[in-house]
Amino acid sequence: MKTTIDRITIALLATLMAVAFYQCKPKGPAEVTIGDAAAQVYVAPGKYDEFYNIVSGGFNGQIGVYGIPSGRLFRIIPVFSLSPESGYGFSEETKPMLNTSKGEVPWDDLHHIALSTTKGEHDGRWIFANGNNTPRVARVSFKSFRTEEILEIPNSGGNHSSPFITENTEYLVAGTRFSVPMGNKDVPINSYKENFKGSISFVKVDPQTGHMSIAFQLRTPGFNFDLSRAGKGPSHGWFFFSCYNTEQAYTLLEVNASQKDKDFIMAVNWKKAEEYLAQGKGRIEKVKYAHNIYSEKTHSATSTMETEVTVLDIEQLPDMVYFIPCPKSPHGCDVDPTGEYIVGSGKLAAMMPVFSFSKIQNAIAKKEFEGDFNGVPVIKYESALHGEVKKPGLGPLHTEFDEKGNAYTSFFVSSEIVKWNVKTLEILDRVPTYYSIGHLSVPGGPTSKPHGKYVIAYNKITKDRYLPTGPELTQSAQLYDISGEKMKLLLDFPTTGEPHYAEAIPASMITANSTKIYKIEENENPFAAKGEAQARVERKGNQVHVYMTAIRSHLTPDNIEGVNVGDEIYFHVTNLEQDWDVPHGFAIKGATNAEILIMPGETQTLKYKPTEVGVVPFYCTDFCSALHQEMSGYLRVSAAGVKTPLKFSTGVPDDATSGAGK
Amino acid sequence: MKKIIPFLVLGMLAACAPDKPKQDTEEYAQEETSKPNAVAENAMTGKGLGQVTHVTLNTPLEGERIGRGKAVYEMKCQACHKLNDQRVVGPGWSGVTKRRTPEWIMNMVTNTDMMLDKDPEAQKLLELCLTRMPNQNVSIGDARDILEFMRQNDGEK
Amino acid sequence: MKTLKPSSRWAIALSALLMVSAYFVPLWQILMWAPQYPEGLEMKIWINTLTGNVKIISALNHYIGMKHIEVSMFPEFSYMIYIVGLIIGVGLLTALANKKILLWIYVFLILGAGVGALVDFYLWGYDYGHNLDPTAPIVVPGMSYQPPLIGTKQLLNFTAFSGPDVGGWIFMVAGVLAVGTLAVEFFLSRKKIAVSATLH
After folding, report:
1. pTM (2 decimals)?
2. Confidence class of residue C192 from pLDDT cuts 50, 70 and 90?
3. Within an 8 Å CB–CB cutoff, is residue C172 touching chain A?
4. Tell me, which fold does domain B24-153 have in CATH?
5. How far apart are CA A81 and CA A83, in angstroms?
6. For labelling, which of A183, A400, A432, A456 has a CA lying 20 to 30 Å from the CA of A361?
7. Cβ-nearest to A533 among B74, B80, B131
8. What are phi and psi of A459, to 5 degrees?
């Protein structure tokens, strides 16, 4: 009897132990929004969001335009990537936009956004963006939300440290991610130290037109440039670049470029560079790079091949560039709104240094250098340091600022945003992100006058945040309220591509200037048909030009005969509408390129090469009116060599009115 | 700036207008100022709804206007309106100046959306044609030129 | 008396047979969570192999200089099957041969194997967490990453848990059965001696 009881007791004890073990297993990360989060992000039907969020699309080569606080996606602006949806890069007018010294490059990796500023504050004029893969920078208009200019960057191995801008948008920079041998040289890869060089382009921005041109390039020792920020206020005239791989490794960088305790932040006195340039200290180098501009007057782009850049060598020209040691592979290099503090985020470091601009100036004046790197002075770490943020988190990447003197740093490894005070370096709050945040954005965060209110996290890992869609998932952004002491998670919203940096700007600075239509009177496209009377078809050799008009709900001409297999047919479609939000589309069966969308008052051209005999329908693709389905026409294609008379019409039953336009 | 048109009078739009069209205030606000019931009165008198409440027509026709009016017609109107009495998308223009008051025509051209929403005559035309006349962003000055061109089309000298 | 009660013989046979499960289910588990791994990562230790997200764990740990975890790192996997086999054999022999001395040996073996395994695991964990590659990308001065022996522990951004898996639990039940049987035998035999003493 007793033994039985003993055994039962033992069995019970074992069970209890088992339960106890399972109890001590930790739970997964909790996920809760607090209080009235739903009300804070609710934008009632018909109401507008408070901010535009201009979000890089990463590997989709586009820019996403979202509303904050709702997280709603409004538009995807094609920049470096073809867009069969709008015809960007497919229409004859926009094809030159993607031209480079290597021919058409129809895609790029768009990482960073810079909104134009005046006196350090947002001015709502332009969006700049970088192409990381085939080095390029782009300018997008805040009026039309269209890409207006793309400038290729020569001597660059990948344009990552870009397109950060100076206080008055005097310059944007384009720093090479990878150092490469200059001038397309065929050298062994292991001659890195000897042959590989870094290159940073200062691109001048015309204050009226926004047109970009390379003012000069800095030639640097060979290592990698990651990110950068311009000085502002007292530090206006300076630019700061984070550098990694000062080990000058060229293989297995994840280990070999992570050996030194400190890499550099490179401080550039660009006013000094301007002086050297004016004194003729630069040397002209022969290069080749494309410069593409889209004109709103002609509704078309031109591509020009440029052949020269002026180079300033930082190893030769003194007092222009200084290195500041910064712990372990700095990524972000962010300047606070006052312009005094520069935050270095060593992504492998266990603390974050904050440098002081005035201390840097002092150290330069007193020559407090610990040595030099290829002749460029290296300022003593302690002499430049304002202080270190102790134990901030793991894997610091980027820092944005609010209007109250606080900084918000993203931590990739520990997957959190940490709020800290820029002056006291005290950590104030931390919130988890889901999951592994990369960039973050506070409205106006990089400017002298942050708008504050929110911080948006752009996460690198999505996992279980949304309904699964196979192995490829949407990207996850998160909105936090930062108006109080504690950060509050308000909203998850999905994004397209893979967002890197983004900026947010008050809608009130943008909406009033937004283009509604293009005035048909001002359309200078040489192929425009400004009115149905000008609609016609002309043959020039084997090229057939169709000057077509579109208005609700017909295309003119809509019956076209007399073209042959092998002809090149150009459909120049002019949208005669002059009302807001009445685009027409044009598509023709079997076209091997795309469709085109034509905004009111605009002319766009689709090229079509018929390959077989028959009658081919074409139609309007943008549902424009009750009779949209009727907005269509036929193209008769005859065999090569068959002399079908050229004939076109609209609305007139065929009665052999050859050549008549009515 | 464009030419002065002394015979046009501005009637203020009723407060309920959803989106006030831009007004060339100087030129058109000379004779009368705010008049809340103008819209309603216009509708009663066959003048349509909009800024244009009174148009003075001159004889003989003003040649300069006819030329400009024709150019605007070809760019913005011809796709739907023929000059004979044939209806294509919209009605042909032949005889239009006999059927409608000059004010109604100019309001239809410049204040299209509101006319289609509220004016009984415009609504009858919409029922007939089934395609909403688009707002072609025609200025009042351009509309006056078009009117002159219409008069010429109807045989006036 | 040198023989066992029939119930003890059945208990030991059951204990030995329970341990056969060690060949079919994992014995130990290490679980890890991080903010970006809400679903967790797991490593299961079997009698002769490792399963679970071993490759992912190794890939993550190499950033801080930890060795790549591979089955070949553990010579234990090559002989553990024989040790467990031996223990099962002794257990069955105890039940069949009905010798108390064998019960003592069986209990000693089973406890020895359990303690030995934990000591061995601790030593490996110490080496794994301390013996770091000095050229690793992330070197946090003074930081080591020894996994917990039993229970949970925070290692940088990861919360790690270590504890028995199904096989481990069965093994423990087998051990408890063996020890319990020994206790009962010991307790009863003392009682019997006491009884016989009063009888005489």
Report:
1. 0.86
2. low
3. yes
4. Cytochrome Bc1 Complex; Chain D, domain 2 (1.10.760)
5. 6
6. A400
7. B74
8. -90, 150
